[in-house]
Design goal:
The chain is an alpha/beta fold and 337 residues long. It folds into two domains: 173 residues, Periplasmic binding protein-like II (D-Maltodextrin-Binding Protein, domain 2), CATH 3.40.190.10; 140 residues, D-Maltodextrin-Binding Protein, domain 2 (3-Layer(aba) Sandwich). The chain has 14 helices and 13 strands. Strands 1, 2, 3, 4, 5, 6, 8, 9, 10, 12 and 13 form an eleven-stranded mixed sheet that branches. The protein has a two-stranded parallel sheet with strand order 7-11. Strand 2, helix 2 and strand 3 form a beta-alpha-beta unit. It is globular, with a radius of gyration of 20 Å.
Length: 337
């Protein structure tokens, strides 16, 4: 449940883009960190002459736009997590993004139902393993439930949004019966109670508590550059090429939508298209070790560190629709107990 709105930065134009009056502007509401977006937004204004008025929110974006109603100034809404971005469409506060650029660059499975939102970058959820104790370099998600990993598998809480999205993707692909069996298999393999964060599973591999775990790829990038004990955690592990059997890699997203009552719709489309171009994809994705959605970007920081990832073809809209059912199955099998 999204909590109370916490506004921690306002009006990018007044803080970053001190310049003469602009003929055009676009209003961005986002839950992303200012440091991650500001360089791209500044470049957009410099290249297009369109001023960006950015409202950075910790949470409560959906509720704010809904409360503002027809008078909302929001043009573009940018969030992380397929569930959150799809909830905007479900709430009726988005509109279809009509853009040939979007259709050309972004695969259909990475766009929302009715093109009501579009993926900008992805982060993969993959397996990592001990460099010393695990010989495999590739694995399927299904193999993680193999009894050979009994007492050797670590994972954060099953109800965490990262795992909820992953289990929802498994459910969308395989149905409830197979997903329930899969969750039971994973739970039976756990070395400890599911919990902690993604980085902590790397710590627990180093300590020998587990041999294999699941993590979001951007944490690997951040740990690789750490100046504390987390660099040691990173050095003890290796990423495994991880896919569904006969499928691709599960990804979650940062994504954008155009507000239903956007007062500057044309500028909103231009901002989204700009963020999908090669220059912006590199700057935006590299800031958090996220994978670019534009296939023409070959040398991103994430690809250099981890290699290319091929997203699974299951539509992310289907993943979002299965999140509640996946959460119910997690509770049913007592995954987090």
């Amino acid at each position: 449940m999204i909590g109370k709105t916490s506004l921690y930065a306002l009006a990018l134009g007044s803080t970053l883009l001190a310049a003469p009056a602009f003929a055009q502007s676009v209003n961005l509401y986002t839950t992303r960190e200012p440091a991650l977006l500001n360089p791209v937004l500044e470049a957009f204004t410099k290249d297009t002459g369109i001023k960006v008025n950015a409202v950075f929110l910790k949470d409560g974006l959906q509720e704010r736009v809904a409360a503002e109603g027809a008078n909302s100034p929001a043009d573009v809404m940018l969030l992380v997590d397929v569930g959150q971005i799809n909830a905007l469409a479900d709430a009726g506060i988005t509109q279809p993004i009509k853009s040939a650029v979007v259709e050309k660059i972004v695969p259909a499975q990475l766009r929302g139902p009715g093109d009501n939102w579009v993926t900008l970058t992805t982060r993969a959820r993959i397996a990592i393993a001990s460099k010393d104790r695990v010989k495999e370099d590739a694995i399927t998600y299904e193999d993680l439930a193999d009894p050979k990993w009994k007492g050797k598998f670590c994972i954060r809480a099953g109800q965490h949004p990262y795992n909820n999205a992953f289990f929802a993707a498994y459910l969308a692909r395989n149905g409830a019966e197979k997903t329930e069996a899969y969750l039971k298999g994973l739970k039976a393999n756990t070395a400890r109670k599911p919990g902690g964060g993604d980085r902590e599973v790397a710590r627990d591999i180093l300590s020998g508590q587990c041999d294999i775990a699941i993590i979001n790829t951007y944490y690997l990038g951040l740990m690789s550059q750490a100046k504390n004990e987390q660099k040691g955690w990173y050095d003890a592990i290796k990423p495994l090429k991880t896919t569904f059997a006969n499928g691709g890699t599960h990804v979650n997203v940062s994504a954008a939508a155009i507000a239903k009552n956007a007062p500057n719709k044309d500028s909103a489309v231009k901002l989204i298209e700009y963020m999908l171009a090669e220059k912006a994809q590199t700057a935006y994705g590299d800031g958090n070790y996220e994978f670019p959605v534009n296939a023409d970007v070959k040398e991103s920081a994430a690809v250099k560190l981890l290699g290319a990832v091929t997203p699974d073809t299951t539509p992310l809209g289907d993943v979002a629709k299965n999140r509640k059912a996946a959460a119910d199955l997690v509770d049913k099998v007592g995954f987090d107990n």
